[in-house]
Design brief:
Pfam family, one: MFS_1
Distance between the termini: 31 Å
Subcellular location: Membrane
Radius of gyration: 24 Å
Keywords: Membrane, Transmembrane, Transmembrane helix, Transport
Number of strands: 0
Shape: globular
Membrane topology: Multi-pass membrane protein
Strand content: under 5%
CATH topology: Growth Hormone, Chain: A
Mean pLDDT: 76
Largest sheet: none
CATH superfamily: MFS general substrate transporter like domains
Structural class: mainly alpha
CATH class: Mainly Alpha
Organism: Steinernema hermaphroditum
Length: 527
């Protein structure tokens, strides 16, 4: 039981307690688990070829990301073990590029601070523009003759396009350039947001539906470009502070989700349908223009590796992270088209509905940097993910409320559930990017934009997949079985993840124990 607890806490401590030397690759001891999301395996392969570092000599000691050099295992001392020697060489070649700065944020240059500010501001503007339609678009769409399923498709199409585009953009990021992709993505998103402001001039019925759908798809391409590149830039620019930087970006993204419905509701009340899109689209275009001068230019080294995105998808740990990101996105995005109608019985104004959306985004915003700092300091990623999944289950039971507990619909408990969901989402989502990077480094991937682009592409594609499933199937579920049972089903999906996570790391503990006993049998302690 103690070993299981140590495994959930992550890091190198539980490996040492299991009797393994630090050099033993963690993922080499993990069992193969069939993924519930195999459609990712059909995505376009990014085939970065493995290169040996020419800047520094390879050493016999692999260096794991953000840690001190580790001791070689007995297997490395065995000259006849060719497989382990090859893997060790892969770690050594990538380890030299994984050096991290030990100073605090005071050691950052002005240009690096400007990069952080623009990454944060871009995430803020984008999520405000994305979330501003939640309080009023469903009502406007219903007046135009759309049903709940069609409204859910309009919301979900954004994420479906991101699901398709993110891996492709990550694959070719080094070719186009991370900064150019970032700037172009912001400007495209801003232009399409402004174009969406003219949707109220469209005739009702299918013309309104298909035009909304087309604009959301184009907007999604721009959003996928700048979000995917922003994660890759953060990994390249701040290798020792990835979780903290991701936490900062997610703080502003959460602030955008929090302010988006509020800003959208207020602008809609005072200026009608067009004002929110014109204002926020203009801000996005301005942000893209400013980022041309403030975001630092990085050399995007286009590698020629034998590894790549298809190789990443063969790593079991990656699929655990994919599942976590997908269910987190489902839990959040499901509420975009459904929460406003769910609250209709309380006769709330658009501004008040926006304030309820603010509860979820506000808690997420406040707690996101805390999770990032906690991860960078204690490496407790797996424990936080388990906590986030459990808290998500409870929040869904309260928001529904679930018929399983016989609760009545109450505005207070819905608010508590939304706040708890914001807390849970940060704990579940923020550790996953760091875990993905650690997993691919453990398999010998280099620290370059090929790797960062591929990881970010898979990461964003997973979130987009969940973001598509949430509003699309969620809207259909509300139509067929009601809001309460739909939230109960989402809670059940999170329960499945909890069981998989526990079983995965329990299997690691068992396998490590067997390997330890085998080593002790082959090498007596008195020799």
């Amino acid at each position: 039981m103690n070993q299981l607890k140590s495994a959930l806490l992550g890091g190198s401590r539980y490996r040492a307690s299991a009797g393994f030397d630090e050099e033993t690759p963690l993922l080499a001891t993990r069992p193969i688990i069939a993924s519930p999301f195999m459609p990712f395996g059909t995505q376009t392969s990014c085939e970065p070829t493995e290169r040996q570092s020419t800047n520094s000599p390879s050493t016999p000691l692999a260096r794991r990301y953000g840690t001190a050099p580790e001791k070689p295992t007995i297997g490395e001392q065995d000259s006849n073990n060719e497989d382990e020697s090859e893997e060790e060489s892969s770690f050594s070649s990538s380890g030299s590029s994984s050096e991290t700065r030990t100073g605090g944020f005071s050691s950052l240059s002005k240009r690096e601070w400007a990069t952080i500010v623009m990454l944060a501001f871009a995430n803020l503007c984008s999520t405000i523009a994305f979330g501003c339609i939640a309080p009023f678009y469903p009502g406007e769409a219903q007046l135009k003759g759309l049903n709940s399923s069609q409204i859910g498709i309009v919301f979900g199409a954004f994420e479906l396009v991101m699901f398709i585009c993110a891996p492709l953009l990550g694959r070719y990021m080094a070719f186009f350039g991370s900064k150019r992709m970032f700037v172009a993505g912001l400007i495209i998103t801003g232009i399409t947001a402004m174009a969406f402001g003219g949707m109220n001039l469209m005739p009702p019925g299918m013309p309104f539906f298909f035009t909304s759908l087309a604009l959301r798809c184009v907007e999604a391409v721009g959003d996928a470009a700048f979000v995917t590149s922003s994660f890759a830039i953060s990994a390249k620019a701040f290798p020792g502070r990835i979780a903290t930087i991701v936490g900062i970006m997610e703080t502003f993204a959460g602030l955008g989700y929090m302010l988006g419905p509020v800003v959208g509701g207020v602008l809609y009340e005072y200026g009608g349908f067009q004002l929110p899109f014109f204002v926020l689209g203009g801000v996005l275009i301005l942000a893209g223009t400013v980022s041309c001068y403030l975001v630092e230019e990085y050399i995007d080294e286009p590698g020629e590796d034998t590894k790549g995105m298809m190789g990443m998808l063969k790593i079991p740990h990656i699929w655990i992270m994919v599942y976590a990101v997908v269910i987190c996105a489902i839990s959040l995005s499901f509420l975009d088209p459904t929460l406003s109608p769910h609250l209709a019985s309380f006769n709330l104004s658009p501004s008040m509905i926006g304030l309820l959306f603010l509860l979820c985004g506000g808690v997420y915003t406040v707690t996101a940097p805390f999770w990032g700092l906690l991860i960078d300091r204690y490496r407790c990623t797996n424990f936080l993910m388990l906590f986030g999944a459990v808290a998500t289950v409870i929040s869904m039971f309260l928001i529904g409320p679930t018929p399983l507990l016989g609760m009545t619909k109450d505005l207070f408990w819905i608010g508590v559930g939304l706040a708890l969901l914001g807390l849970a989402a940060g704990a579940l989502y923020i550790p996953t990017f760091q875990n993905c990077l650690d997993a691919v480094r453990a398999k010998g991937y280099e620290d370059n934009f090929q790797t960062y682009g591929c990881v970010s592409g898979v990461f964003q594609s997973a979130f987009a997949f969940g973001g598509f499933i949430g509003p699309t199937l969620g809207g259909m579920g509300v139509e067929w079985i009601g809001f309460a049972w739909t939230t109960t089903l989402i809670a059940a999906v999170n329960v499945v993840f909890i069981l998989i996570l526990i079983a995965f790391f329990a299997a690691i503990c068992i396998r490590q124990r067997c390997a330890k006993e085998l080593l002790e049998t082959k090498i007596p302690l008195n020799c």
